[in-house]
Task: structure prediction
Amino acid sequence: MDVDEEMTASTSADVSVPVSGNGSAASAVDALSLQPALPVIAPVVSAPVIPPIAPIPVPIPVPRPLAPLPLRPPASRPPLAPNGDSRSSDSDSDEEESGLNRGATGPTQEYEISEESKLIRERHEKAVQELLMKRRAAALAVPTNDNAVRARLRRLGEPITLFGEREMERRDRLRALMAKLDSEGQLEKLMKAHEDEEAAASVAPSELEEDIQYPFYTEGSQALLEARREIAKYSIVKSALRLHRARRKRDDPDEDLDSEIDWSLKQAASLELECSEIGDDRPLSGCSVSHDGKMLATCSLSGVAKLWSMPEVKKVSALKGHIERATDVAFSPVNYQLATASADRTARLWNQEGSVLRKFEGHLDRLARISFHPSGRYLGTASFDKTWRLWDVETGEELLLQEGHSRSVYGISFHRDGSLAASCGLDSLARVWDLRSGRSILALQGHVKPVLGVSFSPNGYHLATGGEDNTCRIWDLRKRKSLYIIPAHSNLISQVKFEQQEGYFLVTASYDMTAKVWSSKDFKPVKTLSGHESKVTSLDIVGGQFSLNFQKHITIDLYYLLSLL
Result:
């Protein structure tokens, strides 16, 4: 509206012409009508500026004075109930007034603490005491040397070691003991022990060493030294012959080793059951064939060992003497003498007539397997007392008590050269020992369950083990590791043995009622001796003859194979 009014006013101002008279007015009108009409341009109008509006003052209300509250008359205190509990008040002011009245007149009732609160308080106090004890123990100076820790425990009247206790655990026990004495105020006893240690430190070192030093080895006898020398001489000759024969087979163009192995395996695959004989009234536990294959020895849980003639398998004699079950039997590799092991903790040496020649006593638990040294002069026995021992066959003297297994020792075998012995046990471990020095040169770890059988190969560098994990492992002594794992049976392997002439094949016995023959070339199965009705507990191989013992049916099964040339 304002813009339109301004435009109208400016237009009327522009066309207004003074009129002096009628004629002049007409001429003026003509002049106006004759002038061309100019275009009307709208002026640019800026937005009006609105001045700021001042805030309207708000009057501050003045508080009105409050009227004084009327005084409330004091409420009378309710009487106590007959059981001693006061009635609850109607308001907080009553509780405050009652609290003031109680404060003015003195305490008339004690608060009772619940059992849960007492337990929490005791637990808290105990935790605080333990924390303080730990802080006090951490601030104490405890010796780091184990011998010094033992000496201080002894001076404090405490046992120097506990069953299964390690060095750090012993030091922590000493620290806790010192902190306890410090908290109980028995500083005199602690200081006296410290003074005794300082006095003992001034003593000659030789006296202190004699008091606490322990030998780390067992000194052997003169007989053991002589035996080691004889074993070394024997093994040198045998190993030289074995190496010479291996070189001859390798270098001689007329020797065809592969053809010889294939022929041997072919003969092994033709094994047939020759005969079966009842061996005893109780289950049989071990068997052994003599070095020439003319005699067979068996033992049973009745404690009686028996001799049988071969190949007709006729009973020759019975060896009675053990008062407990017999666990194993072994023929000497040089004659017809044989040894038996028993659960009565003894081993006995017999002749073929049934007379006892030697009695080997010393084991602390029942015996398991036994084995003769290739020289025939020594006998090895494995026992459940976690040791195996070496005996002199001629004198019956114990030459060596060898520890090393953490659990019972079950099997033992000697290297063909006579220089090494292998033991296996219920700790799932097999160990190889050097008989010339007494050192444990190999610890063969791989089985996950107890190892029950071990055998050296005639080639000199292979070792077979079998155990409760149903597998037979072949170890290479040169590479010091497992060469091959044979998933041999569906039940535990009770015994394993190499063929003792050339080692061309391997035989395993198992509780799955079978025995199996394996090629030593590629460890593939050659023959499965099945059809038995009970567990196979033992086996032996000499030349071409196999003897297998069966536990439940108490029988001897004999297999024949052509002799290997």
Observations:
- Residues 222-251 form the longest helix (30 residues).
- DSSP finds ten helices and 28 strands in the chain.
- Confidence is low (pLDDT under 50) at residues 1-36, 80-108, 204-210, 560-565.
- The CA atoms of residues 287 and 298 lie 4 Å apart.
